[in-house]
Amino acid sequence: MNKDLEKQEGMEQPENPAQPETAAGEVSAKETEGRSGGGKNILAIVLGLAVFAGVLAFCWHMAGSTQKTWDVGVLYAKNDEIRFFDLKNEPYLLTESVSKEGSYHYYYSAWGAVLSEKGDWAYYPANIDANGRFDLFRKNTADPLAEPEKVSASVSEYTVSRDGRQAAYLKAEGERYSLWLFDGASREVAQDIQLSDLVHYLSGDGKYLLYTGRGTGGYVLYALSTEAGSEPVEVFDSVQMYTLAEETDTVYFVAKSEMGEVYDIYSYGLAEGKTECLAESAAYMEVMPNGRDLLYCKKAEGNVLYRDLIVDDMQEADAALPEEATEAEIAENPELAEKLERDKIRQAMRDGEGFEPVLLECYILTNGKTIKAAENVISAAAVANDRPFVTGYQAVQPQPIPISELDGDLQLAEYAYYGALMDGEKKAFLADAMGHCQELPLPADSPVQADTVQLSKDGGSVAYLVRNMEMGTSDLMLASAQDTENAAMVQTNVESMAFLGSSSLLGYYCNYANGVGTVATSEGNAQGNACGVYYADDEKAMYFISAPNGATGNGTLKRWDGKNETIIAENTFAFQYRANGKIAYLQNYDLTAGVGDLYYYDGKQSRLLDTGVTALFMY
Fold it and tell me: Which residues contact 38 (CB under 8 A, 6 or more apart)?
């Protein structure tokens, strides 16, 4: 629900910045890779530790099919019109002038219009200009004859609460912007907003609006209750990044420490109005996909000690030399000078000297308790699951460097340590909020792709891809989440995968070549000549387009649960999974004209909604 929404995998990003949070998956026969069923946008931070910048900054759009979808209606574009189908009656027109000079869709997918969770409110743009600004309207979809409400002109982006009762939007005023809240009437919340500022955030339940303004040490974070008459509350005045745990109405944010160029993590309870410092020297923060728990990483406490990095391989040889020497003796015997330099290093080792750590400790905050999940962490991120699981990479501690190789220079020990961490072995791990941390095993010389780690809904099984360096492909591994040591390879050359339903049944897409591949399950069943795969975990099945025509891109739309197959439609180009086996799809799509026939499948039969349809809206 922010202005930097993740683009759908395999989709082109639209020019129009009005992009409400998407909920349903849409795939096409012309896509060149397997699809997974969506994910959650992750608001995260990676700060400092420049030596590991390239490795640390891997917060991702998690693969899998955990994203909630609902089946409440179909929004679609035809020519320059937006039309709505309520799943029962005939589709009707919302607006006949979407675009004045701007663009609102690419290919067969469109962004910028959104339905409430129950489908009773539709928000949509009209008259999009060359700058991407538009008139924002809201329509009560229960009454086709009801006049739409004009929310505002000159809108550049907006977000909507799940029930559609509230919307927050940015209104363009020349080169500046103002933030507004709409709940049947509009009220201005803040002026002089810059698009480079941190994102504003309307909670899904519509209870709170968070936003930032410019401050001297960062951004000033404000929280506004959307109840009538409420005034904004200043939460903190030097915020670098923030996110909201919607299940607990808790804001987590990072602010620059009073100690200087380090960052601390704070929590702020929206209901209580209480701020608390959770961690110092923070490097990463993320509200976990369950909307309750917090994952964060911080610098390890204590210094990296020289005595742990250096092994004294010259102790016996140096013992034969005098402990002290005159300048004349040193001039005659250079070995004495080298020994004296080594003695300085030995003294530093005995005194417990060292330097600041670069590796991290990973923590999970859950149910008011903080649990250390992993140590020696290079990077970490939450696994998409209702349970708090974390995956990432740990560094294997390097071998100590012989004192004879330091030439009396302690800094060489630091450089060697950094270099060994960067170039040395890294282990992928899976950790939980019980403090259990397990290595994710892999074939020799095949690094784990940590951004592919998935858990079954019941938390019992874990699947992940490892990179086959020799073949340049990925191999699929499956294990018990409580016993990852016995992970087994399921399949080589895998493009994507996801758990189906709440059990450990795994669906995957493999052997991709020339536009098609094979869909299969961990039970050993498979179908070839498939593309555009969607994993519908709410009904333990996969949807895909079979045998696409190389010239038209149209093929056979199928549902398959690993054993039983249902043919939904022939000559299908793209489909959008709704929920519970309901699908909107484009049939007889003309690549040259960019139009097709739109159908809605209710799980049993299909209904023609319209012809000459340009695109389906993602919401």
Answer: 8, 22, 23, 24, 25, 64, 65, 66, 67, 69
In a 10 Å sphere around its CB, with 0-12 CB exposed, 13-18 middle and 19+ buried, how is residue 435 labelled?
exposed
Give the residues across from 223 on adjacent strands: 210, 233
Whose structure tokens read 């098609």?
Answer: 516
Q: Are 210 and 251 in contact (CB under 8 A)?
A: yes
Strands annotated E in 107-166? 109-110, 114-115, 121-126, 134-140, 149-160
What are residue 177's DSSP bridge partners?
172, 193
> What pTM value is reported for the model?
0.85
Residues shown for the chain: 619
Residue 127 contacts residue 102 (beta carbons within 8 Å) = no
Say how far apart CA 444 and CA 460 lie, in whole Å.
25
- Strands of 483-491's sheet in order across: 448-455, 461-468, 473-480, 483-491
Whole-angstrom Cα distance, residue 152 to residue 155? Answer: 7
In tens, the pLDDT along 537-573 reads 888 999 999 999 999 999 999 999 999 999 999 999 9
493, with CB counted inside 10 A (0-12, 13-18, 19+), is: middle
Phi, psi of 332, rounded to the nearest 5 degrees: -80, -25
Q: Is the pLDDT of residue 38 over 70?
A: no
Tokens of 448: 């784990």
Mean pLDDT for the chain overall: 85
Task: Provide the 10 A C-beta neighbour count for residue 597.
Answer: 20
Nearest to 288 by CA among 210, 391, 202: 391
221: β partners: 212, 236
Helix axes 334-350, 410-423, angle to 10 degrees: 70
Six token digits for residue 347: 């003294």
How far apart are the C-alpha atoms of 109 and 10, rounded to whole Å? Answer: 11
What CA–CA distance (Å, rounded) separates 49 from 426?
Answer: 17
What's the pLDDT tens digit per position in 304-355? 999 999 999 999 998 888 877 777 777 778 888 888 899 999 999 999 999 9
Instruction: Give one DSSP letter per residue of 302-340, joined into a string.
Output: SPEEHHHHEE-TTHHHHHTS-SS--HHHHHH-HHHHHHH
d(CA 58, CA 331): 54
Cα(453)–Cα(373) distance, integer angstroms: 16
